[in-house]
Amino acid sequence: MESARSGQNRVGTGDLLKSASSRYLVESVLGQGTYGTVVKCTNVADNKTVAIKMMRDRGCFARQARAEVEALLRLQLLDSDQSNLVEWYGAFTCNQHVCLEFEHLDKSLLDFMKDRSYQPLLLKEIRPIVKQVANALDYLKAAGIIHADIKLENIMLVNHAKEPYRLKVIDLGLAHEASGAAQGACIQSLPFRSLEILLGLPYTEATDMWSLGCVAASLYLGCFLYPGMTEYDMMRYIVETQGHPSDTLLTPGLKTGSFFQYDGNSKNRIWKLKCTVLF
User: Fold this and answer.
1) Are 103 and 50 in contact (CB under 8 A)?
2) What sign results for the dihedral spanned by CA atoms 135, 136, 141, 143?
3) Does 115 score more than 70 pLDDT?
4) Does a structural domain hold residue 71?
5) Are residues 82 and 113 in the same domain?
6) What is the CATH classification number for the domain harbouring 173?
7) Is the residue at 5 inside a domain?
8) Which residue of the set 46, 106, 138, 149 is catalytic?
9) What angle do CA 77, 165, 197 make, to 5 degrees?
10) pLDDT 10s digits, 157-168
11) The predicted structure's pLDDT at residue 10
12) Neighbour-count burial for 134-153, b at 16+ CB within 10 Å, e otherwise
């Protein structure tokens, strides 16, 4: 049943999803976002637990689903365990939704931190996390793909009770080819958004590494490194902690003028960060 207000599928416990070859009993709703709903399901045929991401098969949602499937197809031959990328089983349509079937994982790093009341992790705990995500990004880079949304929610513990801190990267909803990276694109969740994306500069796979650095800092601090509510907040935090970006970096940015004021008469620096009032 769809909500008249949002058009999203109101899938719930006990509902049945059907593909051409399988039936899936919905056990619970794991999460809901802008582009879809993720549900925990049991494959009726073999009793296997899976996670199914459901996206509406129309408009921008259908385009997003097709883009994610294209990225998943490029990675399909990779060993999921070696690459630290979530294993994808396939796609089907059901009730006017594109459904992507994945292995079921334990919990996200965000939920893990919530469960421990955001108590910071030790360096010996953070180190294997960073290593595994970096490994996943290395595989993505080799495939020519930018993830574009590395954040705590998209890093999943596989089975923390049995294999502490073993994890996989999920959600290729914003992933795209590095060769097609469009200058000025709005990608990445705000607390993990890199300087080149904020400024509207050309970007590469390195933008994912910025996000990983922010993830590592969040785990160490128990809070976001840059807790900005707006892009200006983010830029202000970055300038305060890392210094003023050089003019050679700022001048070609498509969005530099949103944060910095141009002063062509200045002898030292032609771009100056706008004060809060001006912004």
Assistant:
1) yes
2) positive
3) yes
4) yes
5) no
6) 1.10.510.10
7) no
8) 149
9) 65
10) 999 999 999 999
11) 74
12) eebbebbbebebbbbbbbbb
| H or E element that contains 47 | none
Establish if 8 belongs to a structural domain.
no
Residues spanned by the domain of 80: 16-103
For residue 131, say whether it is annotated as part of any ligand binding site.
no
Report the run of H or E that residue 231 belongs to, with start and end: helix 231-242
Give the CA radius of gyration of the chain.
21
DSSP string across 108-169: EHHHHHHHTTTPPPPHHHHHHHHHHHHHHHHHHHHTTEE----SGGGEEES-TTTSTT-EEE
Phi and psi at 155, nearest 5°, equal: -120, 115
Read off the pLDDT of residues 39-71 as tens digits, 9 standing for 90 and up. Answer: 999 999 999 999 999 999 999 889 989 999 999
Residues 250 and 229 placed together within one structural domain of the fold:
yes
Same domain for 158 and 85, yes or no, is no
The pLDDT of residue 1 is above 60: no
The domain boundary residue, chosen from 103, 122, 149: 103
Determine, yes or no, domain membership for 173. yes
Q: Which of 19, 220, 204 is closest to 109 using CA atoms?
A: 220
Q: Is residue 193 within 8 Å of residue 231, measured between CB atoms?
A: yes
Active-site residue flag, 149? yes
Quick check: 34 pLDDT over 90?
A: no
Residue with the two structure tokens 């199914």: 52
Number of domains in the chain: 2
Residue 155, CB half-sphere, CA atoms under 13 Å: how many? 30
> What beta strand segments (E) does the chain contain?
16-18, 23-32, 37-43, 49-56, 88-94, 97-103, 107-108, 145-146, 155-157, 167-169, 176-177, 260-262, 271-273
pTM given for the model: 0.93
Percent of the chain with pLDDT over 70: 96
Residues 166 and 257 in one domain: yes
Do strands 97-103 and 107-108 pair parallel, antiparallel, or not at all (unpaired)? unpaired
